[in-house]
Specification:
This protein is 62% helix and 0% strand. It is mainly alpha-helical. The chain has one domain. The longest helix is centred in the first third of the chain and has 29 residues, at 81-109.
């Protein structure tokens, strides 16, 4: 979700044939794309690589999808194309955020090749600091907005990703696949044995639970975006970052993989669980928060209760739901299908930005939203509060409010990016990680 910005490369070794060539100021030279992955987010000049602009575009789409879920009309009040847009946004936008979060971690740790030695240690320190800051910020926001806030979960994801930063694309893909196959079943077993009395005992000693709705148990197992199942998305994004997304052959293979994962997972779920396998809880008029509360396997209420869908007093019913693939169901089919959708969005955005320069220029205001997704995320909650709208709980029947939010985010990001390199919160987050340079 949040855009992770690595430190700029301080220099690029090069050789020259004449003294005259070395007299030109090095800082005036364009950055080497592989060494400056954050250059795509710069407000001035053209993007260094289409693939990074594509990632920013995908981030913006995730932001807009989140707006649709939190502010847009409920699924039951939509029709035609609007129904498909609302359904795709439900669950998939937050999954896309998590996948891009994993991608962004590698912008710090080294994209194609992991940073080692001092640079590697400092990169890990930067990620650890960001994790702590996001966990703290998420806890503060959860005091006001409840368990729908994802930032605290991001903090846990980032900390758990630290040991994986040096893995290859293949190793990360295998890890993500293993997590997708195992963790939903593990979450089901743990949740089925997690009584209310046990939850209360754990929460009684949890300092986070004393100040907000999201405690350690929520972050790991029973919350809206439980770490136990959502790490699959983060690790998948890390694996994508290891690939050369600008290579046509890679784009084709990823497009085929994304399509296969999407069709295979959702198709098999339909065969095994019937026509309601892909049903979204939002069809009942529930918001994103409502659908997440109804998640069966680690998608609790954010306050540790199981009051909104699968009942763990009825294990037979819950076990059958392991075959479903609806948004936020947290099953293996849901995870695999959602990763497939995320891959298709990222690859599609990358290809469009690379091959259609005119579209890339026209999309600059939208891309700007992707470069400051943390600001856009927090800002939309603050705006809802100022307007007296319950954060994360849409009861709208009209598209006008969400379209207004989207337009407002685009205008703000476009204007801000003309004067500043980073979004407001992105700049603060970057400043908070400065002490990492003292790691030796």
């Amino acid at each position: 979700m949040t855009q992770i910005e690595p430190p700029q490369a301080t220099s690029t070794p090069h050789t020259t044939s004449t003294p005259r060539a070395t007299s030109a100021p090095r800082e005036k030279a364009p950055p080497v794309p592989a060494a400056s992955p954050d250059s795509a987010g710069k407000p001035s000049g053209g993007p260094s690589t289409g693939r990074l602009v594509g990632v920013d575009l995908a981030r913006a789409l995730a932001v807009f999808g989140m707006y649709i879920v939190h502010i847009g009309p409920v699924l039951s009040s939509t029709h035609g194309v609007g129904t498909w847009v609302r359904y795709l946004a439900d669950g998939h936008s937050s999954v896309l955020f998590a996948t891009l979060a994993g991608f962004s971690l590698m912008l710090i740790a080294g994209r194609r090749e992991p940073r080692t030695g001092l640079a590697g240690r400092q990169a890990k320190a930067r990620i650890a600091i960001r994790a702590v800051v996001l966990l703290a910020l998420g806890t503060v926001l959860a005091m006001e907005y409840g368990g729908v806030i994802i930032l605290g979960f991001y903090g846990v994801y980032f900390l758990l990703a630290l040991p994986l930063l040096r893995l290859s694309a293949k190793a990360l893909a295998i890890t993500a696949a293993g997590l997708a196959l195992v963790t939903p079943q593990l979450a089901f077993v743990l949740n089925s044995r997690l009584s209310e009395s046990v939850q209360q005992s754990v929460n009684a000693y949890d300092p986070l639970k004393k100040v907000s709705e999201v405690g350690v148990l929520d972050l790991l197992l029973t919350g809206f975006y439980p770490t136990i199942t959502w790490m699959s998305f983060v690790v998948a994004g890390m694996g994508l970052a290891r690939l050369d997304l600008s290579a046509v052959s890679v784009q084709r293979r990823l497009a085929a993989l994304g399509a296969a994962l999407t069709v295979g997972a959702y198709g098999l779920s339909l065969l095994l669980a019937g026509k309601d396998a892909l049903r979204s809880m939002a069809e009942d008029g529930a918001s994103s928060a409502g659908s997440e509360k109804a998640s069966s396997f680690g998608g609790g209420s954010g306050s540790g209760s199981f009051d909104g869908g699968a009942s763990f007093d009825a294990p037979e019913r819950a076990a059958s739901e392991l075959l479903s693939a609806g948004p936020h169901s947290g099953t293996t089919f849901d995870i695999i299908g959602s990763v497939g959708v995320a891959i298709l969005v990222i690859v599609g955005a990358t290809v469009l930005m690379e091959r259609l320069p005119r579209l890339r220029r026209l999309a600059k205001p939208v891309i700007a939203v992707g470069t400051m997704s943390l600001t856009a995320y927090v800002g939309h909650f603050l705006a809802q509060s100022m307007l007296g709208v319950s954060a994360g709980e849409s009861t709208q029947t009209s598209w006008i409010p969400v379209l207004t939010f989207i337009l407002g985010a685009i205008v703000f990001a476009a204007v801000w990016s003309r004067f500043f390199r980073r979004g407001p919160l992105e700049a603060l987050l970057n400043a908070a990680t400065k002490p990492a340079k003292y790691v030796h």
